[in-house]
Specification:
The protein is an alpha+beta fold. About 20% of the residues lie in helices and about 35% in strands. A hairpin with an 8-residue loop joins strand 2 and strand 3. The radius of gyration is 20 Å and the shape is elongated. The mean pLDDT is about 95.
C-alpha cells in the first residue's frame, strides 16, 4: 500500500457543502476512477480516506487535502486526471503526491477576507484601528464554554487594503491541532463592538495556504 495526498480547491457553490458531504463525495469519486484504491477489510469494506482539517462552512479554499491508499504506486500519476471528471463544479484536484508532512505538523494558515460595506473607506479606517488594539480581546466559544482571549500574539501577519466596494484583510493565523483561530471570529467581534458604526453586509473568506512551523508550506 502507498500513501497518497490529494490537494484540491473548493470554490463557488461547493463552499456550502459540509465536511461530511465532501468526504462522502470524494469516496464515491474514487470508486468511479477504477484505480487500485485500498479498501478496509471486514464485513463492510470502505475506502480509507483521511481529511486534513475541516473547513468552516462558507469558506473557499485553495489548499484543502486528504490522504488515501493505493495498491499500486504507479497509479498515482493517474489520480488527478481520473478524479477531476468525477467531481462537481467548484471542486478541482490541483496536486497529487506522496505525503511529506504529518497533519500534526500544520501550525498556521493564511486567509484572504473580503468585507463588503456601503462605506468601505470608513470600514477600512475603523477596522484598521480595531486591529491596533493591544490587547485585542475577542469572545470565543470552545468545548469548555465561552472565554475571552487576547488574539494579538496570534496574528502572525496581516495586511489591510481598500477596494471600491470592499476592504480586503489578508491574515495569517494559527491553524494547528492545539490552537486554531478563524478569521471570521475577528470580523464577528468587530461587528459586535460598540465603538464602531460601519456595517459589514457580508464577507467572503478564501483560505490560501497552510504552513508548518516557520514558512514551510504543508505538503
Amino acid at each position: 500500500m502507498f500513501d497518497v495526498r490529494v490537494f484540491y480547491k473548493k470554490t463557488g457553490m461547493a463552499k456550502y457543502a459540509s465536511h461530511l458531504d465532501i468526504s462522502r463525495l470524494f469516496a464515491r469519486a474514487l470508486r468511479r476512477t477504477k484505480l487500485g484504491v485500498w479498501y478496509s477489510q471486514g464485513y463492510n469494506p470502505h475506502i480509507y480516506i483521511s481529511f486534513c482539517q475541516p473547513l468552516p462552512l462558507g469558506y473557499e479554499s485553495f489548499c484543502e487535502s486528504f490522504d488515501f491508499l493505493l495498491l499500486n504506486q504507479n497509479d498515482i500519476r493517474y489520480v488527478a486526471q481520473r478524479l477531476n471528471p468525477c467531481l462537481p463544479e467548484g471542486l478541482w484536484v490541483t496536486e497529487v503526491a506522496a505525503p511529506v508532512h504529518k497533519v500534526s505538523d500544520i501550525a498556521k494558515a493564511s486567509y484572504n477576507v473580503k468585507m463588503y460595506s456601503d462605506s468601505p473607506l470608513q470600514l477600512h479606517s475603523e477596522f484598521g484601528q480595531y486591529l491596533e488594539r493591544d490587547p485585542l480581546v475577542v469572545v470565543k466559544k470552545t468545548k469548555r464554554g465561552i472565554s475571552n482571549i487576547d488574539i494579538s500574539p496570534l496574528i502572525y501577519s496581516r495586511n489591510l487594503s481598500l477596494l471600491d466596494d470592499s476592504v480586503v484583510f489578508d491574515v495569517t493565523l494559527p491553524a494547528g491541532l492545539k490552537q486554531n483561530l478563524n478569521p471570521s471570529l475577528i470580523v464577528d467581534n468587530f461587528s459586535k463592538d460598540d465603538h464602531h458604526h460601519t456595517q459589514i453586509s457580508h464577507i467572503k473568506v478564501q483560505k490560501k495556504a497552510m504552513y508548518c512551523d516557520g514558512e514551510e508550506i504543508f505538503k
